[in-house]
């Protein structure tokens, strides 16, 4: 039996499920304080945001932002349901966004800001660590700033 994976654009109706994904990953990967940041992002800063569905279940999400600089695509707010981690959904969602950015002629840099908890995932996907700032996101959640190099 083949399982269907669909990556599609986020809609506001997805917000409760996206917030639930964050809660399921708190405190393992996110600080509780970050929920208000995600709500603000979804309502005011979202540029290109996607969800990944696995057999009709919203199993992950992640976005792209440019923040006024069309030459830099920023990978943002990657969250995968704990039951689907390690099954390739995060890799598929990230590769989808990398491909979108590579197809934009003006984009020269792809960056991500993440934590010590998952930076190795991005390394395996071709990102290089440029900077680390302790306790950036919250106590115990360090910033790892990375750029795509492949």
From TrEMBL:
Ranges of residues in domain N-acetyltransferase: 5-150
InterPro entries: Acyl_CoA_acyltransferase, Bact_Acetyltransf, GNAT_dom
Keywords: Acyltransferase, Transferase
Stretches that traverse the bilayer: none
Superkingdom, taxonomy of origin: Bacteria
SUPFAM superfamilies: Acyl-CoA N-acyltransferases (Nat) (SSF55729)
CDD domains referenced in this protein's UniProt entry, alphabetically: NAT_SF
Protein name: GNAT family N-acetyltransferase
